[in-house]
Design brief:
The protein is of the alpha+beta class. It has helices at residues 10-14, 40-53, 87-92, 116-127, 174-177, and strands at 23-28, 31-36, 62-70, 78-85, 99-100, 105-109, 133-138, 143-147, 153-156, 161-163, 171-173.
Length: 179
């Protein structure tokens, strides 16, 4: 990818050639950023999270891995490792476009290539633009940090269950995520 000297818009970004190979690109704050494709361990956790959340989601909701979204309209096109979108929002999404705003639940699985600053930036971006929860799944520590727009953050460990706002009374066992 060629370096840019000015901010790139989403329209300009979408005109770039399709990615292939070991990296793909996201648009972050108007800059094209290479992202390493996930390794198998990462993909297995994504798949497990999707399988755990799908039965708890109401009809018409979206639960999927690698979901592209536009947290802000002009200079952002990101992908969530796993995302949940409520039925009312899902019904309004143009299937020929990206999700506008952050999904209701954004889950990021930590990888060796992630920096603390990058995860913090994405968390704030999502929580300020529609996400009701932002999860950071740490496979090495076998824990999940859940943050909400009100500034509350709770870390969930082995033996605990993460309550889900998308399903009344249901939760996801931390141990099931890493099984």
């Amino acid at each position: 990818m060629a370096a840019t000297t000015s901010l790139m818009t989403i329209e300009e970004f979408c005109k770039l050639p399709e990615d292939d190979g070991p990296v793909y690109h996201e648009l972050r704050h108007g800059e094209v950023v290479p992202v390493t494709r996930p390794k198998l361990k990462h993909q297995m956790i994504q798949s497990r999270l999707r399988r755990l959340l799908e039965p708890l989601a109401p009809p018409g909701a979206l639960v999927e891995a690698e979901v592209a979204f536009r947290a802000l309209p002009q200079y952002e096109l990101r992908a969530a490792d796993v995302a949940y979108l409520a039925p009312d929002r899902c019904a309004k999404v143009d299937p020929e476009d990206y999700i506008q705003g952050a999904p209701d639940l954004v889950i990021e699985v930590l990888s060796p290539s992630n920096t603390a600053a990058e995860i913090y930036d994405k968390e704030k971006l999502c929580l300020n633009n529609g996400a009701k929860e932002f999860w950071v799944v740490d496979p090495d520590r076998r824990q999940v940090k859940v943050s909400t727009p009100d500034g509350c953050t709770i870390s969930w460990q082995s033996g605990q269950e993460i309550p889900l706002p998308l399903s009344s009374g249901a939760g996801v066992a931390v141990d099931a995520i890493f099984a």
